[in-house]
Amino acid sequence: MASSKTQFGYRRHPDQDRAGADVAEYPVVVVGAGPVGLSLAIDLAQREQSVVLLDDADRIGEGSRAICFSKRSLEYWDRLGIGQRMVDKGVVWSVGKIFHGDSKLYQFNLLPEQGHKRPAFINLQQFYAEAYLVDRVEDLAAIDLRWRNKVVALKQRNDHVALTIETPDGPYRLQAGFVVACDGARSSLRQMVGAEFAGQVFEDQFLIADVKMTAEFPTERWFWFDPPFHAGRSALLHKQPDDIWRIDLQLHRDADPAVEKLPENVRPRISRMLGHDKFEFEWISLYKFQCRRMDRFIHGRVLFAGDAAHQVSPFGARGANSGLEDAENLAWKLDRVLRQRSPQTLLDSYHVERSAAADENIRESTRSTDFMAPNSRQEARLRKAVLSLAKETEFGKRMVNGGRLSTPSVYETPLSTADGDAWRGGARPGASMPDAPLVANSGQPIYLTEAFIGSGMRFTLLAFGNGAAVEAPDGVSVVRIGGDDGFSDSEGLAGTRYDAAPGTAYLLRPDGYIAARFRHPTRPALDAALARASGHN
Questions:
Q1: % pLDDT > 70, the chain
Q2: HSE of 534 in the Cβ direction (CA atoms, 13 Å)?
Q3: What is the spatial distance between Cα 398 and Cα 359, in angstroms, rounded to a whole number?
Q4: What does the pLDDT read at residue 112?
């Protein structure tokens, strides 16, 4: 694998030398080489789609920015061939602690159970994640990554999108079957299609400081309400790789950003928090919460993903992780449409599923913001009462909101088949597949998520053996657990997590979400579920 770089030079492409009506055509153009655009391009390339990836800069972004990447994101990056590198560099954590003043209210564990390949979260600076993704892009000949290529005009036709692209050598044109806009919160493509970006902007400001220091703090998420070092406000502490610590401090809504982020004004605040002055600044920034989204994520042949489509506050790690869920949701659907294996209407389910997820993230993010930064006396009194209750009661602890951490979305859409059989639990249609440890026939330990990757990340029938065998539909892979030819559920966790009895079967989508489940699968029932999940019903 190539070594990581952060600066990339502009290179002229032969497409720029075409004259007149001779315009290069591509199935997909992705705009924006951040984590979402890079991941989407890799996913499509691994499905053997040719992708042009454009970015108007020529370097990886500065500052750590997003740092918390969830288990679901890591499982997605495993499918893209980059997950282990992220985990090796990242700081693994699952425990969080909430403080009020100088007293601990409670702590939580986001992944208390064993038997998962990936941890609940890692902390990893976004520039590392982007650099590793670019390295992976450079390994894939199907991706043409063009730096300092800025889309300046867009016109939609019946069967393609016409793009005008500005470069240091002047403009040129491309045609794309589909364009995916991953160009961030200030998306220029969103403006080009005339899309609304509506929601709420909160007035309270937060200071981010990444500081380098040697500290004995554990690798946990620490959140304070009204700490003694920052009276009347909130604070957050996270560890990152390279002895870098992320510190978030709530500021007054009327604070002057230019003044507040001066190092000589930030240093006393951090010194009070840490109790010493032995640290160096890596990055300082200010932000306001914004909870907004587009009304529609699809505008003709232009599709929007990540911050270009929706924004949430950074508390709860719902921004980058939800953007990566956009990418994995869209890639397999776009691939099927381009191959004419599914109708173009399948893409409508991308908007249905991911806009509902955005609404959920915005709702949770808004609730967190309202609790951390009350907008009225009534909200302030409620928070004070809840924090007081949390010292004495379990239900009070559950009401404290220091940022509800990102969890995989559950889709309530026609692509998932409801079942009429009796289930005592287990993963239901519309949910992401739970992981579990298995053993291969060779005796080699393997995780279920790895077996899914080995199946080719297509539609996959997860079948629990020792039951009546059913033939899988054409083009559907099979992962069997139990029986003479299947993986062994040596710890019994797969059976428990899927509420499996002999003969139980699950139909998994190419993004690892559950399309349907069956106690007594039949070929007609599988065919119907596959047709629905692939957009044919």
A1: 98
A2: 23
A3: 22
A4: 85
pLDDT tens for residues 12-62?
999 999 988 899 999 999 999 999 999 999 999 999 999 999 999 998 877
Mean pLDDT value across residues 332-344: 97
Residues paired with residue 432 on neighbouring β-strands, in sequence order? 513
DSSP element (H, E) containing 74: helix 71-79
Q: 292: which residues sit within 8 A by CB, 6+ positions away?
A: 197, 198, 199, 200, 201, 310, 311, 362
Q: Which residue has the higher pLDDT, 400 or 301?
A: 301
- On whether the CB atoms of residues 492 and 532 are closer than 8 A, the answer is no
Contacts of 245 (CB under 8 A, 6+ apart): 210, 211, 212, 213, 215, 217, 237, 238, 239, 279
**Adjacent-strand bridge partners of 104:** 99
**Terminal CA-CA length for the chain:** 43
User: Is residue 371 a contact partner of residue 387, using CB atoms and an 8 Å limit?
Assistant: no
SS3 331: helix
**In what side-by-side order are the strands of the sheet with 68-70?**
68-70, 121-123, 91-93
What is the pTM assigned to this prediction?
0.95
Q: Read off the tokens for 389.
A: 């209750």
Residue 474 has pLDDT above 60, yes or no: yes
Q: How far apart are CA 531 and CA 336, in angstroms?
A: 13
- What ranges make up the beta strands (E) of 413-499? 437-439, 445-447, 460-464, 477-481
Tokens 């294996």 belong to residue? 341
pLDDT tens profile 93-125: 999 999 999 899 989 999 888 999 999 999 999
Burial 160-170 (b: 16+ CB within 10 A, else e): bbebebebeee
Classify 280 as helix, strand or coil.
strand
